[in-house]
Amino acid sequence: MTRAGLTHAGAQQRAAELRRLIEQHNYRYYVLDDPEVPDAEYDRLMRELVAVEASYPDLISPASPTQRVSGTPLDGFAEVRHRPPMLSLGNAFSTAEVADFYRRVAQGLERETITFAAEPKLDGVAISLTYLDGRLTTAATRGDGERGEDVSANVRTIRAVPLKLRGTGWPGLLEVRGEIYMPRAGFAAFNRKALERGEKPLVNPRNGAAGSLRQLDPQITAQRPLAFFAYNTPTREQLPDNQFDTLARLRDWGLPVNPEVRRVEGLQGCLDYHAGMAARRAGLGYDIDGVVYKVDRFVEQDILGFISRAPRWALAHKFPAEEEITRLLAIDIQVGRTGALTPVARLEPVFVGGVTVTNATLHNEDEIHRKDVRAGDWVVVRRAGDVIPEVARAIHARRTLELPQFSMPRQCPECGSAVERITGEAVSRCTGGLFCPAQRKHSIRHFATRKAMDIEGLGDKLVDQLVEAGLVRTVADLYHLTQAQLAALERMGGKSAENLLQALEESKKPPLDRLLYALGIREVGEVTAHSLAAHFGTMDALQQADEETLTKVSDVGPVVASHVVAFFAQHHNRDVIQALQDAGVDWQVVEKTTGEQPLAGQTWVLTGSLSMPRIQFKNQLEALGAKVSSSVSGKTSVVLAGEAAGSKLAKARKLGVRVMTEADFLNYLQSPGVDP
Ligand code: 5U1
Is the shortest distance between the CB of 119 and ligand 1 below 6 Å? Predict the structure, then answer.
C-alpha cells in the first residue's frame, strides 16, 4: 500500500533525505552564518517532511526537525542536578582588577606569559545541554548552580540548538554549556508586533530570553526569536586539550560557537581584546556585557582550580553597566530646528555606560504614556554605546506618592505659538516657524556647523545672543552683520568680531550640496544633499522638481521628496535663498553625473565596514548610474557587504538578493562595462 504516493520504504528514504537537508541548512544558517537557500525553500522542505511523517507516523523520531515543538503544555519544570555544578565567574570592572587576576594566574602557573581563550560575554541565560549518543536529551537552566530546571521542551524549539550532533567522534555523553540569547533584531521585531497587537512588549533581550525559557507551553517559546552559543564543556572526554580547539570541535559537531572567540597572549592581549569588543559592541547584533578570559590549556585550568564556586582560571571583564536607576526630576520640553517638541528627562546625575548622565530622551508623548513615566519617578536609564541616553522604563513599584501624568503643552514653551500634532504622527510641533526663536536659533546654529557652511567662531552662545538682540532673524541676516554690531555684544572683542566677519566672507562660495545641507531641509543630511546636488546641478532645477522626479535620485524616497517639495513651497524659504544670493552668497554649480551608466536602474545598498569612507563607494556607484539606498528590500539589486556586516546582510540573504564583497566590487570597477 502507498500513502501520499510513497511506499513505506520510499517514505523512509525521503524522510531521511529531508532531515539531512534540513539539518544541513540549519548548520549553514546558525553555525556557519552562511545560509545556502532562501527561507521559502527551507519551509518547503519542512512542509514536505511533515507530510511524509503524517502519512507514516511510525517514521517520526524525537530527533526529527519536525519534533521541535511538542503540543502539550507542562505543569511545571522538573529539577535537574548539575554535576559538576554550573560555575559563576569572578568579575572585573577595571584594568587594575584584570592585572590582579593576571598576576594570580601567572603566579599559580609559575609562568609569565599566559595564553587565554577570550570571548564575548553574552547577556542571556546560561543553559546546560546533554547529548546522549549524539541526541539532545536534556536542557537545564543554571538555577542556583547545583540544581536547575528541566526546560528541554522549550529548548528543543530553538533551531540553533541541534537535536542531533553532526559528524563523528563525539563522546557517548557530551554536556555542553552556553548561553541562550535573543538577538537584537528578533527582539525589536517581536516588540514591534506586540505593540501592534496592543500586547505588552518585552523589557529587554535578556528578560525576553529568560521569560521565553520559563514558558510552560513550548508553543509560546517556539515563537520567540532565540539563539544559542556554546562556551564550555564540563567533561574532557574525546575533546582537545584546550578551550579554543574544544570550541572549534563543538562547532564541527553542529553547535553554534561565537565567531568572535580568539586566542590572546598575556595581559595586553586580554586588554586589547576587551577594547576591541567594546568598540564593536554596538554592531554585534546581540547584547554583551563584557568579555570572558579563560586560561586556554585544560591542564593549566586544573592546576589553578577553584575558589568557592568560581574558577581561578577564568574572569569576566565587564563593560560599564548600560542601565542604572536614578530619579526623574522633571520632564522639560525642547523645541528643535523643525519645531518638533521633544520631552527631555532631567535626572539626578547617574553614572551609566561609562559617563555621568543628567539628561535623557523620553522620545515622545506616546512613549511617556505607554511607559507611564512621571516626574518624580525612579527610572531605569539606559545608555548603550554612543547612543543618546534614554529613559527605558519607570519602576512603578517604587512610586509612593500620587504623581501627575505628563501632558504635552498646548503652547510652545519658547514662543507661545499653538502646538499641533498631525494625526498619525508621534511628534508634536510648534506652529511658530521662524517666528519661534528656538527654531530660528537651531536653524542658524546648524547653518554654521562645520559640515554645513563651516563658519568658524559662530558658536551656540553667540547665535543665542544674535537672535535675542534681534540682529539675526534668518541665516541671510548673518551676512549683513557689521563690526560695530558685533563688537557691541557682551563677551565679544574687536578681534573676535573681525574674525567672524572674515569667516562669514570665506563661507560665501559653498558648493551647492553644502548649502542644501545647511538650509536644514527635513531629512536631508549631507549624503542626500550631495545626491540632490549631483543630480540637479543647480538650485533652480531642484526647486522646480516634483516629488516623482525627486524619488529617482539616490537616497531619496517618498518621505524625503515630500519634505523637499514642502520646503521650497514655503515662500519664506525661497525668500531666504534669494536674500542669501543678494548678500553675495554664490553657491557653486555641481557637475551633473554623465558618461557610461552600466548600473542605471539598479539599487545598491552598502553595509558593514568598508576600507574607504562610504561616500566614496556611493559616488562611484552613482557615477555608474546606480541608486544607493539605505535599506534592503525586494527591489534591491545588490548588497555590497564589508567586514562584520550584520542585519542588512542577513536580510539580503533571506530575500535572495545578490551580495558582493568589497573585493568583488573593486574587481568589477576594473571593467565596469561588464555586468557585475
Ligand atoms: N562567554 C562565556 N560566558 N560564560 C559564562 N563563557 C563563560 N563561561 C562561564 C560562564 C559562567 O563559565 C565557565 C568559566 C565555566
Answer: yes
Cell, residue 87:
560555575
Q: Whole-angstrom Cα distance, residue 18 to residue 36?
A: 15
- What are the residue ranges spanned by the domains of the chain? 8-68, 90-318, 323-398, 427-593, 603-670
Average pLDDT (430-455) is 87
- Taking residues 319-325, report their average pLDDT: 87
Is 121 tagged catalytic? yes
Is the CB of residue 314 below 6 angstroms from any atom belonging to ligand 1?
yes
User: What gap in Å lies between CA 390 and CA 215, rounded to an integer?
Assistant: 30
The better pLDDT of the pair 384, 580 is held by: 580
Q: What is the pLDDT of residues 53-86, one digit of tens each?
A: 999 999 998 889 999 987 778 888 999 999 999 9
Give the Å distance between the CA of 235 and the centre of ligand 1: 14
Segment 491-503 mean pLDDT: 88
The architecture CATH gives domain 323-398:
Beta Barrel (2.40)
Nearest protein Cα to ligand 1, atom 1:
121
For residue 179, which atom of ligand 1 is closest to its CA?
Answer: 3
For residue 285, report the distance from its CA to the centre of ligand 1, in Å.
20
Q: Evaluate: CB of 232 within 6 angstroms of ligand 1.
A: yes
Domain 90-318 has CATH 3.30.470.30: yes
pLDDT band at residue 385, thresholds of 50, 70 and 90? Answer: low
Distance 231 CA to ligand 1 centre (A): 6
What percentage of the chain exceeds 90 in pLDDT?
Answer: 59
Nearest Cα residue to 349 out of 329, 371, 377: 329
Rg, the chain, Cα only: 30
Distance CA 623, CA 629 (A): 15
- What lies within 8 Å, CB to CB, of 133 at 6+ separation is 172
- What is Dmax (Cα atoms) for the chain? 103
Nearest CA to ligand 1 atom 7: 231
If one compares 291 and 461, the residue with the highest pLDDT of the two is: 291
Q: Select from 344, 23, 321, 367 the least CA-distant residue to 164.
A: 23
- Report the pLDDT averaged over residues 139-149: 93
| pLDDT bucket at 390, cuts 50 / 70 / 90 | very high
Ligand 1, atom 6, residue with closest C-alpha: 231
Closest residue by CA, ligand 1 atom 2: 121
3-state secondary structure of 647: helix
| Residue with the three cell numbers 564543556 | 233
Distance CA 467, CA 582 (A): 21
Query: What integer best gives the mean pLDDT of the chain?
Result: 90
C-alpha to C-alpha distance for 397 and 378, rounded to whole angstroms:
9
d(CA 119, ligand 1 centre) in Å: 9
Cα-to-centroid distance, 184 and ligand 1 (Å)? 21
Given a contact cutoff of 8 angstroms between Cβ atoms, the answer to whether 398 and 376 are in contact is: no
Q: Using CB atoms within 10 Å of the CB of residue 103, give its burial: 0 to 12 exposed, 13 to 18 middle, 19+ buried.
A: exposed
Task: For 567-623, write each residue's pLDDT tens digit.
Answer: 888 887 888 899 999 999 998 876 665 566 788 778 888 888 887 766 667 767 777
Best residue for ligand 1 mutational test, from 87, 292, 300, 319 (most atoms within 8 Å of Cβ): 292
Fold assignment, 427-593? DNA polymerase; domain 1 (1.10.150)
Model pTM score: 0.61
Give residue 350's pLDDT: 92
CATH class for the region spanning 603-670:
alpha beta
- Nearest atom in ligand 1 to the alpha carbon of residue 121 is 1
CATH H superfamily, domain 8-68: Helix hairpin bin (1.10.287.610)
Centre of ligand 1 from the C-alpha of residue 216, in Å = 27
Residue nearest to atom 3 of ligand 1 (CA): 121
The residue annotated as part of the active site, out of 121, 294, 318, 371, is 121
